[in-house]
Write a structure and sequence with these properties.
This is Radical SAM protein. The chain has about 300 residues and is of the alpha/beta class. The chain has helices at about 1-15, 45-50, 60-70, 95-100, 120-125, 140-150, 155-170, 190-200, 230-235, 240-245, 275-280, 280-295, and strands at about 30, 40, 80, 110, 130-135, 150, 175-185, 210-215, 245, 255. The strands form two sheets. The protein has an eight-stranded mixed beta sheet. The protein has a two-stranded antiparallel sheet with strand order 2-6. The protein starts with a helix and ends in a 15-residue tail after the last helix.
Length: about 300
């Protein structure tokens, strides 16, 4: 099984364009600059993991320390995602932080619930030259949306997304947009209508798209994860261990974006560098070996996860 899994990892890394570069540095950087969210979605465990953070906002000194190392190793970097399990627009400096990477020709994206995306913020974000934004907009049913995305107002969120796209198109910004919809049985019958609605608004020439996810692909915690994972999926390793580093607001390094509670404490970037941690972390190496030998079943926090298959 180990040999087969090694081949699976190589194929996945090749498909995600993350073999190129090398240099002992991760291809994908998940960098969270603010610990918080404007919503309390039913499938999200933010109240559990946010209590374990030592900082609500990433300080400038730490951000630029991390950013400068990424820029120094940019030949190995495919993309920087400026979010993990948070709402990135809560960071009032997010536009300037995006621009810092873009000035150094690094691809940047983030995912947002759009609750804070007013016209002023839209122009700031678009001016930063961000490559891609994912907006989480579940369905087009106001009542159901507000039951799932607790704390948000559907009409405001939809209006914010539409206004963002309108500004982008009016001034011909190149930023691509993806609309993410969590597939829920309550509006499964409306999926075609949802796709038709967004297909009239999105611009395929700019790389826009719609993505539909199951609830079991969402970020959640412990027993909240779906138990519907198949045995065959559980036998597969997660290739993210080989190409992605996940950095939280306080500089701590998580195993991945799903391990929000940081079951494994992989390091602190106040005390080390990305490259040092990436190349000399016994915990990560042990987990990688368990994945090669037993797949996701080899690690408790991974065994019910079907993200990144």
């Amino acid at each position: 099984m180990s040999g087969n899994n090694e081949g699976y990892i190589i194929d996945k890394l090749r498909a995600s364009n993350s073999i190129a570069g090398g240099g002992g540095f991760p291809s994908f950087i998940q960098l969270e600059t603010v610990n918080g969210c404007t919503a309390r979605c039913v499938m999200c465990g933010i109240d559990e993991w946010s209590k374990k953070m030592n900082s609500n906002y990433m300080e400038d000194a730490l951000f630029y320390k991390i950013a400068d190392e990424i820029i120094e190793n940019k030949e190995s970097v495919n993309k920087v995602s400026l979010y993990v399990g948070n709402e990135p627009l809560m960071d009032k400096k997010i536009a300037s932080r995006i621009a810092y990477f873009k000035e150094n020709t690094i691809k940047v994206n983030f995912s947002s619930n759009a609750s804070l995306m007013n016209e002023k913020r839209a122009k700031e974000i678009l001016d930063s030259k961000i490559d891609h934004i994912n907006f989480s907009v579940d369905g087009l049913d106001k009542g159901l949306y507000e039951k799932i995305r607790k704390g948000l107002k559907f009409t405001e969120v939809l209006g914010n997304v539409l206004k963002f796209i309108q500004i982008r198109d009016k001034y011909n910004y190149e930023t691509s947009v993806r609309i993410s919809v969590i597939k829920h049985k309550a509006y499964e019958k409306d999926m075609q209508y949802i796709c038709n609605f967004w297909s009239k608004i999105l611009d395929l020439k700019k790389g826009d798209s719609i993505r539909i996810d199951g609830l079991n692909n969402s970020i959640s915690v412990g027993n909240n994860r779906s138990s519907e994972i198949s045995l065959e999926c559980a036998k597969l390793p997660c290739y993210v261990l080989w190409n992605t580093i996940t950095i939280k607001t306080d500089g701590s390094i998580a195993l991945c974006c799903v391990d929000q509670c940081r079951t494994f404490k992989l390091g602190d970037l106040h005390k080390t560098t990305i490259k040092e941690n990436w190349n000399n972390n016994a915990i990560r190496e042990n987990i990688k070996q368990l994945h090669l030998q037993k797949g996701r079943m080899g690690v408790d926090v991974c065994k019910n996860c079907i993200a990144w298959l």
